Amino acid sequence: MGVRVASLGIRNSSAGNTLGAVVKKMQVFDGSGNSLGFVPIYDSITREIPFSIQTSKIIQKMMI
């Protein structure tokens, strides 16, 4: 069973820094049914938050 959409978007995406292990792959097809390839599915994707003065203040509040 597949998911069919009119188009794919990336508006809800964000940068990832460290990829986990590939646990599955999802095949992608064009409108005619031809395979475009596979998209890896990772068990985790982490994103490092840049350290700033604001981040430091938040951490200090959490430690109190």
Tell me, rounded to a whole number, the average pLDDT. 76
Pattern of helices and strands: EEEEH
> Which strands sit side by side, in order, in the main sheet?
1-4
Tally the structural domains: 1
As a percent range, the share of helical residues equals: 10-25%
**Taking Cα atoms only, what radius of gyration do you get, to the nearest Å?**
19 Å
- Which structural class should the secondary elements be placed in? alpha+beta
Largest sheet: 2 strands, antiparallel
Distance between the termini: 51 Å
Looking at this protein, list some descriptive labels.
64 residues; alpha+beta; two-stranded antiparallel sheet; 1 helix
Please describe the topology of this protein.
Blueprint: E1 18-19, E2 22-29, E3 35-42, E4 45-46, H1 53-63
Antiparallel strand pairs: 1-4, 2-3
Question: What's this, in brief?
Answer:
Helices cover 17% and strands 31% of the residues. The protein has one helix spanning 53-63, and strands at 18-19, 22-29, 35-42, 45-46. The strands form 2 sheets. The protein has a two-stranded antiparallel sheet. A two-stranded antiparallel sheet has the order 2-3.
Question: How would you portray this structure in words?
Answer:
By secondary structure, the protein is of the alpha+beta class. It has one domain. The protein has one helix and four strands, in the order ββββα. Strands 1-4 form a two-stranded antiparallel sheet. The protein is elongated and about 55 Å long. The mean pLDDT is 76.
